């Protein structure tokens, strides 16, 4: 490579670092509950169009969120060892570059949503508003993880709206497109986000205290480990209740059992409150979400359409 290609390569590497391309934990934690909701809403495989929209949209929106978050937190991140070398914080990527990239990614994600239906579009705008508010929540609320929980769970009602909503703008409002159990799924998922993001906040607690930031790890204090385990329990219990409500089968509960066992194992990792243990527990949550989704997908006989090569 010579000329412009050589010059562009370092910028591309910085942009990929900015959107955490090599750290998929963030978008996987967003993706699993969204896919679970999509499979429940569609009563099985949702079709390649919706699957593509929600997988691509999740990855792209998480990337856009990283751009906004890093700009908002740049004054704090330089004082935290784990985040001091992020591209915006270190000055290698300008604020303008980061916001431009974030806006471009957001427009691509919105273009994907426009291929669904009106209720999903309206919900995406509400989800965007919550996403933009989250980076500033830690300055004003003692538990910003709840705001993150709403942001990370908004794919659930969007999935239901996309699978069940009408196409005509004049025919259907958002509440009519999203059934009650979708909102209960969202509420239960917030408990899961609260659990894993408290583990994440425990990693940086000492730095956050010095900076005067607010997190659930600081709020819970010496009860942090108990609070994390309680949130996991509430998440699993809510999923069991929804399964009973929706008459799910044995694979569904098997998936929840595996997820619950993984969550229970986190006690061993976080009880000493070491940075390494808490961060490892946080990363393990990808397997919690994967187990729940696997149970939902396997429990639905409509998955046979995919296995047989006849997606509906």
Q: Secondary structure elements and their pairing?
A:
Blueprint: H1 4-18, H2 25-42, H3 48-72, H4 74-77, H5 95-113, H6 118-137, H7 144-153, H8 155-164, H9 174-177, H10 180-203, H11 205-211, H12 216-220, H13 224-245, H14 250-270, H15 275-299, H16 304-307
Please characterize this protein's 3D structure:
- The chain is an all-alpha fold.
- It contains 16 helices and no strands.
- The chain has helices at residues 4-18, 25-42, 48-72, 74-77, 95-113, 118-137, 144-153, 155-164, 174-177, 180-203, 205-211, 216-220, 224-245, 250-270, 275-299, 304-307.
- The longest helix is centred in the N-terminal third of the chain and has 25 residues, at 48-72.
- It is globular.
- It starts with a helix and ends in a 5-residue tail after the last helix.
- The model is unreliable at 1-7 and 302-312 (pLDDT under 50).
């Amino acid at each position: 490579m010579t000329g412009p290609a050589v010059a562009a390569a370092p910028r591309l590497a910085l942009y990929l670092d900015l959107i955490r391309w090599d750290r998929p934990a963030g978008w996987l934690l967003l993706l699993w509950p969204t896919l679970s909701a999509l499979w429940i809403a569609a009563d099985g495989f949702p079709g390649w169009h919706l699957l593509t929209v929600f997988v691509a949209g999740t990855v792209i929106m998480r990337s856009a969120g990283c751009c906004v978050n890093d700009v908002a937190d740049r004054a704090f991140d330089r004082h935290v060892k784990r985040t001091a070398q992020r591209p915006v914080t270190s000055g290698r990527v300008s604020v303008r570059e980061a916001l431009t990239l974030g806006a471009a990614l957001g427009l691509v994600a919105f273009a994907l949503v426009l291929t669904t239906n009106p209720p999903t579009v309206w919900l995406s705008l509400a989800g965007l508003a919550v996403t933009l508010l989250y980076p500033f929540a830690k300055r004003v609320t003692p538990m910003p993880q709840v705001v993150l929980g709403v942001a990370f769970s908004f794919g659930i009602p969007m999935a239901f709206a996309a699978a069940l909503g009408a196409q005509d703008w004049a025919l259907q409002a958002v509440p009519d497109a999203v059934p009650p159990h979708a909102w209960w799924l969202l509420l239960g998922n917030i408990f899961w986000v609260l659990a894993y993001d408290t583990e994440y906040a425990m990693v940086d607690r000492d730095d956050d205290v010095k900076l005067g930031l607010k997190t659930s790890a600081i709020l819970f204090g010496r009860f942090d480990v108990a609070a994390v385990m309680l949130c996991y329990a509430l998440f699993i219990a809510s999923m069991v209740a929804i399964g009973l409500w929706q008459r799910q089968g044995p694979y569904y509960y098997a998936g929840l059992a595996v997820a619950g066992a993984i969550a229970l194992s986190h006690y061993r990792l976080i009880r000493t409150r070491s940075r390494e243990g808490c961060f490892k527990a946080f990363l393990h949550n990808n397997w919690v979400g994967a187990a729940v989704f696997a149970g939902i997908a396997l429990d639905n006989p409509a998955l046979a359409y995919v296995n047989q090569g006849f997606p509906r």
